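User: Hi! Is it possible to get a structure for several chains at once, not just one? Here's what I have:
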Amino acid sequence: MFELLSKISKFVFIFLIYYFLLNFLRIMIADLKEEKTHPKATGFVLVEENGKIYPLFDINTIGRANDADIIIDDPFISSKHALIEKRGSKMVIRDLNSTNGTFVNGKRVKKTIRLKDNDQIVLGKRNFTFLRGERLEAPR
Amino acid sequence: MKPHADIIYKENMAIIALIGIIASLVLSFYNGTFSPIPVYGEMIFIAIMVSGYIFTNLLFPQQDPALILLSSFIVQLSLIMLYRINPYSAERQLIWYGLGVALFFISTLASKAWVEVKIGDFFLFVITALLLLSPLVFGVERWGSKSWIVYKKISFQPSELAKITFSLFLADSLKDRKIKNPLQFFGQILVILLLLAAARDLGGAMIFYFTALAVIFAATSRLDIAAAGMLMACIAGLVGYKQFNHVKVRIKAWLNPWEDVPGKGYQIVQSLFAIAEGGFFGTGLGLGHPDYIPAVTTDFIFSAFFEEFGFLGASALIVVYLLLIYRGIRIALSINNGFLSLAALGITTFFGIQIFTIIGGVIKLIPMTGVTLPFMSYGGSSMVMSFVSIGILNGIKIRASSGESNG
Amino acid sequence: MVKAMDKLERNIKLIFLVFSILFISLILYLTYFTAVEREELIQNSYNRRLWEQEAKVIRGSIYDRNGKVLADTQVENGVKKRIYEGGEAIGPLIGYSDEVLGRAGLESILNGELLGIAEQDPVTLLRKKILGVGERGNDIRLTLDLNLQKTAYNLFQGRPGALVALDPQTGQILALVSSPGYDPSTIKQDWDAVSKDEDKPLLNRATQGLYPPGSVFKVVTLAAALTYNPKVETETFYTPGYIKVDGNIIKDADYLKPGNYTLSSAFRYSSNTVFIQIGQEIETEKMIAMAESFGFNRQEKSDIPIAQSTFPKPSIVKKDVEMAEAFIGQGKILATPLQMARVAAIIANRGREISPYIVKETVSPLGVVKAREPSASSNQVISEDAADKIKELMVEVVKNGTGTSAAIKGIEVAGKTGSAENPHGKAHAWFIGFAPAQNPQIAVAVIVENGGSGGAVAAPIARSVMLQYLTDEK
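Assistant: Yes, the chains can be modeled jointly so their relative placement is included. Here is the combined structure:
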């Protein structure tokens, strides 16, 4: 009796165990999809003069346009003004042919340049600081 | 949590329960006539698991549910095997599971709200050292190593807790991505290893060593240190082989257990026989012979499991462990804080190395060492501390999700 | 700062990769283990699970070709006892199966069948369960003739040696004797004495003993000569009683006078020197090929483990001498008695290949009979013509030559004697032959270690065995 039960249940167990694993596979796939639609924060941020913090992702278009990643409503900022993106382990910025130009630490950005911690970025008349997110943990 | 994922997690919890219920029903007929005890035990298990899951989900919506589920899955299998081998041990394991889940909850809370206390790495080192020293001073020797402390009827292995403090120590020392004071740092690690060696816990020493290596490499990216570390490990192995008889015995038994089957090779040979008997689908629950295997509730529980659940069952278990590691790594990657990331890595690495070591040992891929299989082997300290460990991982995950990475 | 975080990330991913590889290699190793190593381990005699199975099952019986019991399991008051019939004559062949001593002989080789664990497909299992016969293993019927086996064994009178008797038309083994033997019924009590006996009764000399065949090998040399150098039939060879090869002198037996010999007379009187000359007329490769097609250098797959008989590939330096020795069955050439019986059987079978086997069929407790006879080979080792010629010459050996002690009144016996020089003392006495010559029913090979003259010592044993078998047949 027991032997029979055991021999049958054997297959049931195997089935259940693998179904369990399958479920985790589904979760992993869902996670991956999630990463695609919700890009991971890079850990870097753009802090505006007035204190507003914009978290930076892999690709960030900055401008007045409604579909920009970071929307700044300012007449001196073009609809697509600048682009900050992740290149390897660094963040880089380039100007998207804006009317009033993009400036990093006072210098006008002509081609793509790398951003360093604490760089001062000026778009039109707005000032931003480029920072590493970790610094902004709950102050003690 | 995303609703879709939530359903899958709940489904998995149901699967664990189902496996347990079926197994307990089968086992209730083990002695011929129906005995309701396994079913009662299963009910208690399910109660603990479900309440643990719901409770933690309620209070920590951003937690990683996979942690408690994966570990509960393994514990479920453990309880099934232990009941079948020795019902009394299953009873105790269940109690420790309950304790473990409770501590899981507490340690999640603690590490979530953790003040970045400036304990400092030196203090962490001292705690670790003291933990490892204590059994040497007032502990007892069991199965060749003096790493147990016994009080009244309760025995505890401080080295299990030391793993956690050691991970924190490593993380704190290396959080700035470089070794502040190499001499002191390596010296501290050496002390820890020596304490373990003094307790004759060479398996433990090995795990601590490789974990340290991994975390150091992760933090500093210094391949040269990693390579040197590997080399030193090989040398240590060779020296150990020549100098220490019982290392020699272990390695010889690994290379050719057939030389002395009734003596030195007995354990591993019996393990291999059990695994051979298992085949693809296993013999079926209760139809194997764990009574032929020595130390079957602790070191060789994997072999007993393989015998009854076969290659398919055992491989699935290995994958589940890998998933646990995966979740731990994922947590380490998700947090931007160097200290926490390295701590998560350390804890996860401890698990990973330990699991690989014990499974590799019982299947004769590598020599046997006296380490246990987390969540599966019979043992209170291991179970409880493992839950504390994943509780810490959980806490870190919550901090990562609540946006600490963006300030 | 920027870099550091990503490096850490990368390193952590790397570490995960390492873990994945480690864990996957665990699974891969287990796959290999389950596919390959598993079988061996299950049958390992240290594996208590096998003994558990044994305890549950009644071990099957072993019978000879006429249904006589050789090994049987009897149950008395719930206690199982394995009994054997045949005494010392059957020990090295049948062997034993014991928890303490382990397993040997056919009891070991056929263990799976005897316990019924060889095939366990679910349907058979179910049937067994329903019919209530699950607890018995398979019975095995051998081709062996127990009476013949006992007679042959007694003729040795405890002297070390072996005898193999085959049915040349089918390859069935009629007798497989190794002397001295042991009685499996008392092996447990006798273990100390038997295992320490200098004459090694536990060894099965018939299948595992490797000896220089001596002059009985001339049958193969003869076969090679007739096949590759037919003119040898009409040649005349002169011998002064010795021959010099590469500075080594090989002599004929004392009773051989120097003079002229034909193939027939040289064979009849077993002249070494003439046969070396004959052999030298055959290309070395062809000689080796002929030996190999008779079964030398072949790793046999059979019911019983058979040691490999070797015909050496000569070294470059001492080629001539080594080949010369090989032609007369001396030097590095080694043969098991079974192999020499096969040689005789091939000649008896008119040159057709034969595969010796000892298990006739297995009978399951449900009554299912499975024949184990290998399919007859139609391979011609030598032409029928050549075989017939050799047979004629072998008949002459028994009629007028060195093998007259094998003659049986009223039956034509074919044979060849041999006295193999060996470093351990007197020459080994060999005899191979078959009878009746025109329609052979039995082929034998006999060796008496250090017995001296094949004609005087081995031939009479062969004679008695053949006589009993042929008269019993009638």
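The radius of gyration of chain C is 27 Å. The first helix of chain C runs from residue 2 to 43.

User: Great, thank you!
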